[in-house]
Amino acid sequence: MNDSSSPSHRSNASSSLRSSTSSSFRSSASSSSKSLRAMVSGRSLIAAGDSFRKTSYRTISVGLQFEKLETLLCEISQDYCECDVLVRHIRAQFSGLAARNTSNKDLSRQELGEIVDALQEIVNTSPRLSPKVVAYIHSTIGLVRQLRGENDAAIHAFMKALWIATATHEPNAVEIGLTVHRLGIVHGQNGNLNQAATMLEKALAIYQSAELTEAHPYVISVTTEIEVVRPKLLKELWRAGSTPAFHTVNEELDHLKHARDRRLSS
After folding, report:
1. What is the pLDDT of residue 255?
2. Greatest CA separation for the chain
3. Nearest one of 156, 147, 204 to 178, comparing CA atoms
4. Which of 17, 72, 121, 133 has the most CB atoms around it within 10 Å of its CB?
5. What per-residue confidence (pLDDT) applies to 60?
6. Residue 73 has pLDDT above 70, yes or no
7. How many angstroms separate the CA atoms of 12 and 17, rounded?
8. What is the C-alpha separation between 227 and 207, in angstroms, rounded?
9. Are 30 and 98 in contact (CB under 8 A)?
10. Sign of the CA dihedral 58, 63, 108, 13?
11. Dist. CA 88–CA 78, nearest whole Å
12. Tens digits of per-residue pLDDT, 26-52?
């Protein structure tokens, strides 16, 4: 953290904060767990996340996780943000976020908007962040946008995260697969079944190339999503006369059903 920020920089940051949120500062005695603090202590958030995922599948989710979100907001801003005003604001407002919210339904649209504003400000005022962490932040913004029902904005954020992640020197295949996976889900929510199926199948291929097992939550999740999207897409294509015969659709549906049954019985 740089204490020598210029007065104009601090003033601009303060004005931005006042305009982006009207809520008062909030504080909490709750803090991140030691394992989550270690994710930002001298290591890349993404690299630490990889080792964290290997320890317990129970902590893994394709969607938004409040503990990781709080770490991202409070610890990353403290370690990398060059605006003291922003750091104090974020820690006062979002410390204890995970303890206060046990589900996505606990957050209002206004609170979700404030989280997006804070994450974007962290990116804007933290030039020392690695591209991998910047990509992670944009992917998180996409998740928050998705919760707000702003699917087009979520797609934009995920695409930005994907572009940054694939442009890094040593791209993290699993994180790239996860972003593609999230893109597939939000395309499906938008009713774009063709794009959703393409993204989900691409994500599955990336997970498999990264040697994730069938028991990995990401693989289970994307396979389940494919099983939901593909039959809908095939029926849609058949109605439009884009498939050669109806029996092809039935064969595909049977294949998906058998694959699901085998996985459940294993």
Report:
1. 59
2. 70
3. 204
4. 72
5. 55
6. yes
7. 9
8. 17
9. yes
10. positive
11. 8
12. 333 233 334 333 433 334 333 433 433
